[in-house]
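[Primary structure, fold]
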Amino acid sequence: MTTLPDRRLLLVHAHPDDESIGTGSTMAHYAATGAHVTLVTCTLGEEGEIHVPELAQLVAAEADQLGGYRIGELAAACAALGVTDHRFLGGAGRYRDSGMMGLATNEHPRAFWQADLDEAAGHLLEIMREVRPQVMITYDDNGFYGHPDHIQAHRVAMRAVELATAEGIAPAKVYWTAMPRSVLDAGLNAFTEASDNPFAGIDSVDDLPFGTPDPEIAARIDATDQHAAKEAAMRAHATQIPATSWLYSIAGNFGAEFMGVEYFTLAVGDKGPGNGPYGWEDDLFAGLSLDGPDRSPVAAAGLR
């Protein structure tokens, strides 16, 4: 038996690469500062596009081997972030990437979009029983931008919290990934004349499928010292994020600020002490008492 660290963070993401793009710096920050970081990925990302020409035949419509390949990409990304505890929900391959909303792939019998909610939440509850995270991160009810697997990840995560609450083992705080409208507005203005403008055709933040009013943001995690780890994790997902991606273009312009700062809203729990005009937390564990019997003894062999 071994005892996990006092601070335990659980993240629930839909596909390989979501963890790096959306929460990579936060994961690297907490891993580097001694917290136990558990990543749960719900699918293998079988329906993703492929940006490496020599691997094009792995696509779902041909060999349908992309999901297996992305297991290796995710392992490399986790290594870059310093995360050693990663699980696929229900085991690798139990749930399949559903593809974008409205596509026939949504109807695949193993599509995550079709998953039985309580069954899938039960798989996550097993992990909660083992790890006993005080903090969980997932998406909002629109999956941040509307992808069916992101929406389902939200539903599964929040149902698991309900089940864990009934057992008295639920995370004290649940955060949803977010992007302040002020940050998006600054991006729109900064890239207006850029040739690789990722906001081309968008005149206002109101036209974007995401964006949270600044007063509704609960936490701003400044992990600028981990921006290189996040970029390395993103580059590990080479089939999905080409070297010419606008993500790297923005990083080149804004550097550590873009790669290293991530934002969240608080969906469950009490907000801890914060800073600035809106009292944004700078620590997801702010306000929590981490002493006492909730430290999680687990079998060492159970970590993977």
Confidence is low (pLDDT under 50) at residues 299-304. The beta strands are 2-3, 8-13, 36-41, 85-88, 135-138, 173-178, 219-222, 261-268, 297-298. The helical segments are 18-32, 66-81, 117-131, 148-167, 181-190, 227-236, 246-254, 256-260. The chain is about 35% helix and 15% strand.
